[in-house]
Request: fold
Amino acid sequence: MSRKIFPEPLQDGIGARTYYVPGLIKHWLYFPVQVACILALLLLSACSALNGSTQQTDTPAAQKVNVFGTAANHVHAMLALPNNVLLVATHYGLYRSVDAGKSWSGPNQGLSDMMTSSLTSSQLNRQHVYLLAEHSLSSQTGAIGLYASSDGGNSWQLASKASDTGKMYTIVAGNRSVNELYAYVPTKGANGFVVSQDGGKHFTSPGVLPFGRILGILALPNQPGQVLVYSNDGAARSSDGGAHWETIKGFNSAVYNMTTSGSQAPIYASGDQGILVSKDGGKSFSLAYADARYSALTAVPGQPEMVYGKTGRMIYESTDGGHAWKALPQIKGNLENLVPDPQLPSRLFLSLSYPCEIYQFDQQNAAWTSLTPKA
Reply:
């Protein structure tokens, strides 16, 4: 019998403040407009705003606490690649490990200590990686925009400037070619879903979104052109790379996050209704668990019934396709990104913020191990 889980408070990612979001516990009063606005802020990059303004802060007047810098540094995105490569995009630069987190290099010299976010890699060639970068310090002069790497994040080249494409909120590698990339530009409104077929050099809007704003994009693995978007108003599906969209039945309110473990695997969604699952490629969803809402979900390659749910303070695990959940051992700190190892499904990596730290979790011994070297 599954037990009822009341989510931990979600972190706003900006500082020490914590928001309890009305509606995340079903007995609380529900204010749809306020909830939608707060959830959008929670899911945005910690230091980027939808209006496209660039945050410029001074270097924290503190000493380094570990290899990732001062206690003020925080994580925006993390990516695990084959051959034990880990990439961590932080407010003060990009860090890389080639030995599953035992040692780290960074910040990347080509990107300096610019703010990096929204890491994604091609489904067809995992060595092709993309990220967004902008200024974190008023003294920085590096180009703001989309950067690309063809060697697993070892070296980077500017693919396109934000001044040309518009400021992107999120990027997701496509599923039709190694050079396809999906992105969302909020300032373009309903035409904000844009696609590049040349590795991020040029973008076009293939069609009109059914929502004014979206919170995220999911490109289905090994299913060319099949892509889902989710928003405060529900979710939609396209079978032609975003040229046409169909609203997905089964959602009647906000959807925070979606994930899947692979081709033809279940698709999991977390939203105001709870945890929902699709087994028909996203055409329809059914409620799997009504008593929990997670800010992020993580599916595990090769384990279609395994899914993890994350809040600001706790991580929960389901081994039966989202119908029952149990808490993993707690780690103190602000939990950010949880990603699986693409070659060792029993291993997951977790990032923490304030300060930036990295842990790994082994399913077999159900324990966390720190991967954070000292300064």
Summary: The radius of gyration is 19 Å. The chain has one domain: 10-370. The longest strand covers residues 303-310. Residues 1-46, 49-58 have pLDDT under 50 and may be disordered.
